[in-house]
From TrEMBL:
Localisation: Cell membrane
GO cellular component: plasma membrane
UniProt keyword terms in alphabetical order: Cell membrane, Electron transport, Heme, Iron, Membrane, Metal-binding, Repeat, Respiratory chain, Translocase, Transmembrane, Transmembrane helix, Transport
Tagged with keyword Cell division: no
Posttranslational mods: Binds 2 heme c groups covalently per subunit.
Name this protein carries in UniProt: Cytochrome bc1 complex cytochrome c subunit
One Pfam short name: Cytochrome_CBB3
Membrane topology: Multi-pass membrane protein
Amino acid sequence: MRTHTSTDARGRQTGRRHPLASIALITIGLLSTGGAYALMTTTASAETSVATQQSVNEGQKIFAANCATCHGMTASGTKDGPSLYGVGAASVDFQMGTGRMPLAYQGPQGAQKPLQFTQEQIDDVAAYIASLAPGPAVPDEKYLAGDADVALGGQLFRTNCAMCHNVAGAGGALTEGKFAPSLKGVEARHIYEAMVTGPQNMPVFSDSNLSPQDKADIISFLKFQNQHASPGGVDLGGLGPVSEGLFIWIFGLGAIVGVTIWITARPN
């Protein structure tokens, strides 16, 4: 960059930069910063892509060894198991993450049991199934924190879920040997995944039925119930007024009848 010279009042020459020098330096700095950022972003994206492909490959191996007997080598289904195309990562994480899959036995409903795979293995299988066709993804953590509207969540739960799971989330019997499980102690992400995938007899609650925020409200309500004891004392399993009335009828009236018989049986 050329430097202009000038002479001061005493005849000395002074150096002065060109007016465009500052602009040129800023431009160079911006280009350097932008280039470095683009390089790092490209590298990070490439590393993420490789990691994802590795997860898919590992998931395919685990699937072939443990799931293909029922679902087929390409997950297209057999007479013993449905196709998994379009079920998404959420369904895999729910079924394997709760121990329901692989099935212990053929029955009216998959039983929950101890996990047979690590979370990393479950994530790999979920990545493989998700790569086959679009489907519900594992929910974002922001919907699982339990800090949403508890009151609205309770209202939504009673409207959409209580007819099967009971108003207290204690579960209930269904037809043909099936049942709605208790929701006490169930992980938030599994509750969300069940809503978007509809396992067993459960309907699918898409975002048009219940928005992600609505689902977060329901999860907050269930967490609140799990964390707060019954203010009225023993809740009799949280089964509601029917069980409480039955308790009073059997034990309360039974005790009164017993005392009455004891009094009348005493000799005068």
